[in-house]
Amino acid sequence: MPENDQQTRTSLLKEAGANIAGAKAWHWFSYHFSMLPPRPLASSIVDACADCEQKLPGLGFQFVKEIAAISGKEKHEPHYDQLLQKLAEILVVRQLLTLEWSAGTTFQHEPAVSVDGKRPELRVVTPERTFLFEVKAPALREHIRARRTNAFQVAGRTLPMAQVHKLAGDANLTLPRDNPVKDFLLDADKKFAPFKAIQAETAVLIIVWDDFIYEPITALKHEQCGLLTANSYVRDATGAAVQFPNIDAVVLVRHLTYFMRAAADQPLQERAHALDFGGERALPNVFMPIGDPGLVPEMVRQGLRAVRWDDPFFQRAAEYRPKDIVFWM
Asked: At a CB cut-off of 8 Å and minimum separation 6, what does 98 contact?
């Protein structure tokens, strides 16, 4: 590791130790940063923030401060969700910053067209084209508990609820987690709009989910209800499916499971550490173009390990296909 990189890492670790492990406020990650040497989760956070700091000075320290600020209430579960969402942002931003962009490329974190304008996560300005990226992650804690205990899961809004309840009988149901996906689309579309009103920019929404990747795929692409189909369950005043004209593509990243395991200090097996984006043999992420697929270059798709949602590989993989109902044994 170059000397300046090591100095950055040391400074970030000191900052995190003082504000997370050394602070009086209770923090979900305090254990990880208080140990000597730091536990794997703490090390992976510091390394990722150091990479961000090298590309955009100040960003790594900003991320550490934002993580430290999610604290104060002992075992407050909404804070846990917020921390996973912040890790999702760091994971994706770091991956994007470290791609092999063209010479002369510049980066802007949380840019805005006006002082009080909406701010997407990252703007990448290359000599050829400008890209906008927004990163989202749902709060899945309660949903995961339901999946673990309920025998039936309704993955999408494909059947009348009366029919679903009749089918399930006395068993409890896990309902679709599709409204966060809808909210992500609506919010990202609004964030991208001011930029696209000025010039052509490629805008990508990146949603970080857990291993149950069929859930957002169902929400987006199920032919009877998908948000990116003509049969979307979200309609406008005229009855037509709501469109998202300012989003050029959606990428689904399956990674929240690794954050949860690392937070519990458990072995990750498929990843070297919590913020390891995965290698060639890892299960792929999902690329869903809304407009022209060519607007998102192959370099970006490969960097995000994202394969088109209708690729033949996914037709053979059950967890990548839209679902109606799931019966858990």
From this structure: 51, 55
